[in-house]
Amino acid sequence: MSTASPSFLQRLFGGRADPKVGLLPLYNAVVAEGRQPHWYIDGAVPDTLDGRFDMIVAVLAQVLIRLEAQGGTQDSVWLTETFIDDMDGQLRQEGIGDVVVGKHIGRMMSALGGRISAYRDALTGQGDLTEALRRNLYRGAPVTDAAIAHVEGGLRQRWTRLGCLTRDALLSGDLG
Question: What is the pTM of this model?
Fold first, then answer.
């Protein structure tokens, strides 16, 4: 009697490991960075559901841009799917029903796409990061120059740091 290897059984029954699991360290690091108190205290990012979403998206956009630049397009897709799964779960935890969740997720994905474009332009010298932050992070609300300088400086520092990381270091969640 022969025994089948686990990989054969996994293929036979369709049980492959979810590739998004490997991106959880990176995703968790993005969320942890977006939740750092200094963004909300010194940077005056609104400490609301929308403000936290916008701050996490600001960090996520940088990571997605860097992953794509390093040839990690598939990793970028999986990281985005991880974000969608998380947002879906968060909305459901808030008691939002199935029909409305889809609409919210659609708006969130549209916001993510727009912010990636705005931040890519700003971080590569094609646009103005201050204006992108005023429009996307603060949603046009008044903010002091010191607060916006704090956020802009922090994001530019993160952008430089991300540019120094290998793909493996980035995937491991080393955003420090």
Answer: 0.83
